[in-house]
């Protein structure tokens, strides 16, 4: 019984070795990472209004939006830089003594103000938001042109990394690389949302007027990987 098991084991090992030799390929993963500072900045301003009547809530929402847009326009912020989303007016439900009751209406809308990162634009928006005592958050992102350039660059770098690794391995193994058999792309290892770096910031300022918010865009990284399989001559 022992001899039979031993004989079967030898056959299995021999088959595995032959399969590896017949394949005669070298597979290498090329990786690359590129870092850059985002070119765009966006202010997100959540406006909320609570009123006892639906009409009153709607009118106050309209006035608040109009007031903000006029102030931004006065500061020189372009109309195309201002967008709104998620406009809604709902019943304002609250809990009192364990019961859920309606207390008027609640209106909300998000205002986005975005442009290429520049100090004059940031100063103008901050002055408007400060004058109207509005809360906001900011996010930094790559422009479409910047994303396209960086993506092309990092892919080329990943392919070059794979080629260099393949040359080193083949030289150390004393084998000669042949033609490329297969290329697999899309196995990325970057974090979700690599082109966006967001910080939730408040416009609240102390009585002394100090504001310690860091409005500088952070360094953002993008990583790509590519798998290349060479035939070994």
Automatic annotation (TrEMBL):
Q: Which residues form the signal peptide?
A: 1-19
Keyword line: Signal
Tell me where on the tree of life, at the top rank, the source sits: Bacteria
Name under which the protein is recorded: SIMPL domain-containing protein
């Amino acid at each position: 019984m022992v001899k039979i098991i031993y004989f079967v084991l030898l056959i299995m090992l021999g088959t595995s070795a032959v399969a590896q030799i017949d394949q005669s390929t070298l597979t290498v993963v090329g990786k690359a990472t590129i870092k850059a500072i985002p070119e765009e900045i966006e202010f997100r301003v959540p406006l909320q209004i609570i009123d006892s009547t639906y009409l009153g809530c709607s009118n106050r929402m309209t006035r608040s939006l109009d007031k903000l847009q006029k102030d931004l326009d006065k500061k020189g912020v372009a109309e195309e830089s201002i967008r709104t989303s998620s406009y809604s007016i709902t019943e304002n439900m609250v809990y009192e003594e364990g019961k859920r009751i309606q207390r008027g209406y609640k209106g909300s809308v998000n205002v986005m103000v975005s442009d290429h990162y520049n100090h004059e634009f940031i100063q103008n928006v901050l002055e408007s938001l400060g004058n109207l005592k509005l809360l906001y958050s900011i996010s930094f992102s790559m422009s479409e042109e910047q994303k396209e350039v960086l993506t092309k660059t990092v892919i080329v770098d990943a392919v070059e990394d794979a080629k260099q690794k393949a040359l080193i391995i083949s030289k150390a193994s004393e084998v000669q690389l042949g033609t490329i058999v297969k290329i697999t792309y899309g196995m990325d290892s970057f974090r979700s949302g690599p082109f966006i770096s967001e910080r939730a910031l408040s416009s609240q300022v102390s009585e002394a007027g100090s504001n310690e918010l860091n409005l500088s865009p952070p360094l953002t990284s993008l990583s790509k990987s590519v798998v290349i399989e060479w035939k070994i001559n």
